[in-house]
């Protein structure tokens, strides 16, 4: 019967080997829950040209923090493709980082989960007070009337990038300030296989950012005061129709743009195929596609009439990154100190300069580094004419539903189908029915 | 492409119709397979601003820079090592466990056998989405209770992937094992071989092609998985399939580098296939058995 | 050669290796018998444990989730999420509302896609394997070439295809429009109706090498004598393929086709990487649809309910398939 035993031993061994080899892997950076108070886990978002570049940028700053406080920060730069799912997983399990970056449009959704530390007066006091931050940036850190779920870290805004050479060739002296001017210039520019404006028709978030601003200009919002979806108001329908109309009606957008979702419109812009794009912080990307900084100009996004301002002259969403503290952290004090460090004037200047963004901290914004013509446009937009996307828990559903509707309308426009008010209203009605 | 004397199927030379059909079919198929590979190679040799331009069969302005840049943009070497460790370990464990299970099913009658095979097969139907979060939660709880870090570690990933490939491996191996004549087992038993001896001396050697096929399958399952890897790994344990997405950043997609990196990491795998394919075509009929 | 469910196991088993002891010694002692009885279970143990941990228990939790209201307000503490009874299911299959209509559309698209893709994968894989059964110059190299799509990381493969399918700059339109002049207007491949074809091409390209691999291995187990005998009887090569090769492949095909079907049906990576979060309606595969319903819109309860419905459907299909193919084979074997 020794063979039996041999069999048993063999099986047991395999099982053991399997569980040992497979189960007992190297335990690596866990996060909250099992860390010592002398360390923090920080999930940074990808802001620079690559993940490795982000690490190189952030590591010296984290070293500085360690020298000041003795707290070691374990950095992980999480790619955008994974960030939200990683946060969701962390939220469901309670096993997450201590401090993390979030896209500011997620603020209200994540706030609703209760996984993030609310920034009440007491917590704000520990990082120097609420007043240090620009109000519009704070307004995009959580639902109105509630303590913010995060604090602003980097701010960005949309601007009109225009190709100076193409403008000069077409005899257009200055960038358009109103949509009528943009369309008029567009008709001159769109010829010989070149096009006036680039859009990312299959990029849901980008579609949302654009139609949100246009809706504001038509005096409409996608959510009413009580936070209920209201996608089919005349203003919202007109906004979507106007945006898709650049391709469908005015024909100043190349039909091929309907399928763009990976910043191909920036590549076209850099390759002199399109004359204008509406974008946030495009400089590094344009440079990596071989464009020289003096080849493009930057101007505020057009408005219906007059100059950018508040109300119906809003011309950008408040784009940016917020920094949040995971409620389950066992090193709350350290986490707050870290947020304070990252939002300090000095770090704000260093980091925002590197990333080409604008500091949401008022005192840091005054640094002359942010006075360059490019950044001044962004800074002024943020200060005077930017509005936060709806801060409602259902924001991500909104982006999916309405973003998809716009994408489908672009597909229709590219196929040559007329984009009528009825069609737009029908698509938006369907989008609204998909909301919870 | 004449048929050599070692033809396996028939001693007489195949007719022209067969040879022509084969030639045409295999050529077209090779074209279909290689077309994207060609696009990858040619794109990987262009500077970034040229990649996005209109497609041309013969690229102008070749550069090998992307092949150097790939190592700086993302920690490719680490991701590659992680993938090799994870896929390798998952393959070894999966094949070993599947061989035992398939042997039990193909050579024994026992109560519960049917339930086992049917249940195992049915796990192939689970949509990954359904148990992604529950599995994550289980791993975290095991971690909290026992201190074994499954979440975020390579171990957790290995465990997951080896189980993903188990059902199909077991079913395929049952099929392959059943096709091995029982007479061989009997002969071994008469020679005094126990069940395990029979397995190792008779069944496994005879089923090498099947086992190799299953191993390749198990390896590729682990090698290519994206969804689970995207939330169960962190920076140090991230695998290639997820890590490659690092070439697409918020503002830029480094097309040329993605292609270059994919080619670089695939070369060892294809080379492995080349080495292994010898075993895919040896086996029962080619072996000593007559 | 059967798939070992007891129902259609061969009626007569010559000898079980485990029975050898009985033949050699006298009457087996009880503990030995117990051990012998236990051996198959012992052999299965690791597999069972792993399946429980990674597949079955999480699935049970998943089923439980489908009865709860798991929106972002509750995901932090699942236990406290309110029960919703069958409400999630009702929403999913309510054909008068957009959610139900979209799910049905997605389901039908997935069915059509799976049938097409599995058929093509199987056909290409089997044909190639049979053609390459005999040795010829360059066979080894060709085999490696054919396995290449399988070796490339999914992400790279799919975005390469997406790159080729671009309307303005892609290779597909360059060939079809610029070089062959087959289309008047440059067609979109990643938007609208054509996206179904694009998805099918990518899925087949990526998956057929697997069918090739499995069939190739299975061909090795067909005894050479069968071919020799047939050849002596005067059967030509086409007849040999029809009479010997294909019938011998049947058991492997049974599993292969089923597994290909299940994978294609549940495939997430290909459509997700090809189209992003919002696939065009004609290529909106159910896995992406469910992903969108749970992860993107943070409603894990409804997403789980949809998954469970999908699971039930696949269970029924699989059971019917196994019954049909097994019965077919039994009569064929007789």
TrEMBL record, chain A:
The keyword Phosphoprotein does not apply. Keywords: Signal, Sugar transport, Transport. Residues 1-20 form the signal peptide. The keyword Signal applies. It holds the Pfam family SBP_bac_1. It comes from the Bacteria. PANTHER family: ARABINOSE-BINDING PROTEIN-RELATED, DIACETYLCHITOBIOSE BINDING PROTEIN DASA. This is Multiple sugar transport system substrate-binding protein. It comes from Thermocatellispora tengchongensis.
Automatic annotation (TrEMBL), chain B:
InterPro entries: BP-dep_ABC_trans_perm (IPR050901), MetI-like (IPR000515), MetI-like_sf (IPR035906). It is found in: Cell membrane. Residues 80-276 form the ABC transmembrane type-1 domain. GO terms for cellular component: plasma membrane. One of its GO terms (biological process) is transmembrane transport. It is a multi-pass membrane protein. The chain crosses the membrane at residues 20-41, 79-103, 115-138, 158-177, 198-220, 254-276. The keyword Amino-acid biosynthesis does not apply. The keyword Hydrolase does not apply. Keywords: Cell membrane, Membrane, Sugar transport, Transmembrane, Transmembrane helix, Transport. Its main location: membrane. Belongs to the binding-protein-dependent transport system permease family. This is Multiple sugar transport system permease protein.
